[in-house]
Fold these 3 entries.
Entry 1:
Amino acid sequence: MSTPAVTNLAVDDVFYFLSAHRSLKAAGIHSRLRLPASHPGFQAAAAQALARARADGIEQPVLMGAIPFDMDEPSELFIPSCHAFFDRAERLDAAARRAAAVGQAIAARSVPDEPAFKSAVGQAVSRLRQGELRKAVLSRVYEVDFAAPLAAERVFDALCAQNPGGYQFQLPLAEGGHLVGVSPELLLRRHGASVHTFPLAGSARRQADAAADQAAADALLRSAKDHYEHSLVIDDIRNLLAPHCAELSIPDAPSLLSTRAMWHLGTTIAGRLADPAMTALRLACLLHPTPAICGFPTAAARELIREIEPFQRGVFSGMVGWCDEEGDGEWAVTIRCATVDGSRARLFAGAGIVEASTPESEWAETQAKLATMLGAFGLSGQEAA
């Protein structure tokens, strides 16, 4: 059985995961893998799904999609009917040419709202001071209703045009709609024996004035609070990856990463696997969720999130990407994203809470992080208040 060329398919039928390393476009759904990633048989099921796809005539099949924040929830993974790796510059160029207004927003709301979110931050800080936790990540969802159904492809075009860096994705969800986003954070990439991860923790909002923007970056580099938050993430990743690596290189201090809306502290971590049987999917599931999107210790932070957050995160702050039969693949952290279904979009943002956090500053951080997706929908940050 031969598979159709992706280039012959209509634009709305194509799904994407774009990166500077390797970009993937795909079409059609040969099969889905809904088994939760926490299930003991998940890794075997992923390998079996790829083997079945090859037996059905799909050449060099890939498994792509998303795994939720809570790995006990069903996965959002699928094997496309056809796919191709390509230079993402051509897709970014097409997005820049096509980018247009997404639609007219008619209603919006934050869950939780500002008072409730600030109260949750206060609760988290109290728990931190009791010594139960060292960090917890709290988030909110921003729901926007539009006058007419949204086209995920149009949102993706706007997102790519405004944010050509990072990891852009547009993927179908099993119960309808699409996941669209541009993540700045690499959870894990494996190519042969080489593994890389680029965790982010510690953030500051970009400023329109060049001098003020540089001052914000310099302040982030000096911030004891943000360096402490970042160190929790790096230490956890080191402890998880080191047993599986013959070599592991971690810089002594983080560097700055800039996006359109934010400055971040990031650390480039590179390693060489000791066991080639450790696939990209297995390693990504080992790391997920990192303290950057959950907290530390992980179990206690997850429990606090379940207790305080008034919604289920679903795919937000999970992992998104792809893997193949050889064990290679690339997974990004599912942040700076939205789900689009009919005339409703749900945008997400979170903030890392440590003992030095204040409710006002953490609310402001979520406002700043929402700016990326708000821009793709043609909305300003003022609407998210």
Entry 2:
Amino acid sequence: MSKFRLGALPPVPSVLLASLSVQAGAAMAKGLFPAVGPTGAASLRIGLSAVMLLLAFRPRIAAMSGAQWRAVVPYGMTLGAMNVLFYLALARVPLGLCVTLEFVGPLLLAVSSSRRALDFLWVVLAAGGIGLIAPWNGQGLDMLGALLALLAGACWAGYIVLGGRVSQVLPGSGAVATGMVFATLTVLPFTLVGGGLSQLTPGLFASGLLLALLSSAIPFSLEMNALRKLPGRTFSILMSLGPVLAALCGLLFLGEHLLPTQWLAVALVVAASAGATLNAKKVALPVEG
């Protein structure tokens, strides 16, 4: 019944709810950090999401060809690295700013192949946003956290490129499910070394299930519903609102208050992302991983 209700939603609310669910999941993950650490939270999210997607789509992993393996393994590893880096950044940086910095990766990818003057405006806007976030006086925002968020954005850009290659040899939702398996294998060693899951309790496991639902299963269903009904460009423009929704979730669920200049930074990056998507010949802002 829940699946029917998700599929019955209009496309625009589906996209907005999907993004809101992802950001609420990130806020929940940050609440788990004191108990399991960032890598432990990443393992719970990715591992349990992989199980859910495998059960839902049952990809034929054993029957994959060599070309499919060569495409899906780096795709999954990049997805895992993106999530770990994002959670490590989130442990140091407010959610809204963390997502804002992460968005720089796909934004630069969207304008990287363009030679039009207008697209350089989006780069300038994004650079202005980063400039407003950066703690030039050496106080405030954690610099390592900001760097980790930018690295997560770089992985997001790589995830887009690799995802395009995977879709050519392994189409359908099975590609995402299979990629999640390799994302789990990428994250798990860091978690085991750090001992993030050594104190796992039934309550924490239940929280991990909810985290996987909020961050992966529910958004994936909503996004697939929207993509069947919306042009890709419209979908990506709506997804550009992610930093705003992240800042609101950080405020509501984590009590993270941004400075007026930081809100302006969020607005600049959102405007740059939407503008780059609107004017791009090929949309490069993706479904969130």
Entry 3:
Amino acid sequence: MRQDAAVWNGGMGSVSDYVALLKPRVMSLVIFTAFVGLMLAPGSVHPVLGAVAILCIAIGAGASGALNMWYDADIDQIMSRTRKRPIPAGKITREEAFAFGMTLSVGSVVLLGLLVNWFAGAFLAFTIFFYVVIYTMWLKRSTPQNIVIGGAAGAFPPMIGWASVTGGVSVESFALFLITFMWTPPHFWALALFKSGDYRAAGIPMLPVVAGETSTRHHILVYALLLAPVGAGPYFLGFASPVYGAASALLGLTFVAMAADVWRKREGDAARLACVRLFKFSIFYLFMLFALLLGESLIVGV
């Protein structure tokens, strides 16, 4: 009924409601990883153009979030984690969210292309398309591998930041992509384990719903084992110091230990706590890897 009222009234969204459409927490991660990619890229870019590039990437990420909420409004109102979002809460209509997202998408891509370079602009356009069409419209509702494949969209920003400086991509930028790409499945599966009821009710084939919790725990542990050496990749490729190598190894081993804890604890509050701890630590893990890379780039540049 609240959604119907919003349609009739043309929406009642405030500025904060439109900000919520942008998924600001996700956007903050995108901004940070894109900035690290831009700072690590060889060569230089004018500070104003660098700021424009990061702003456009941030707007593009927000546009993707708005279009995701537009398309997923039907399932968002079912899930406890998402039912307070602006559309299911009746504050913004689907039509308004779609128009908002499309306007930001086109604007961010065109601005990045015109002011920075068209390779970066095209890469941003592809990333928005991948997240909205490939992941949201297709993979999310059709396969338990939705997060595995769809996670690429969230891993592209450091490559776009890199491309904003160089006009292309490289092995180093792909290494940055690979860290987030391999991190995404265990991060989201830890959340899905204790929110599986929501996904089941919404008909979303997340791994715990389709394959069961035991299989999901196996997958989390395997991905954690694969992520640990990938996280140290910048050191092995020679664009990070031994300090980064040692820190990334320690963080990776901790990630594996916490994933093993999720694998061992399978019932009751202990199992739920293990999942929550891994989910929270995974955010810290990714932040620390990119923060270390950023810190080293700033020290070298001094």
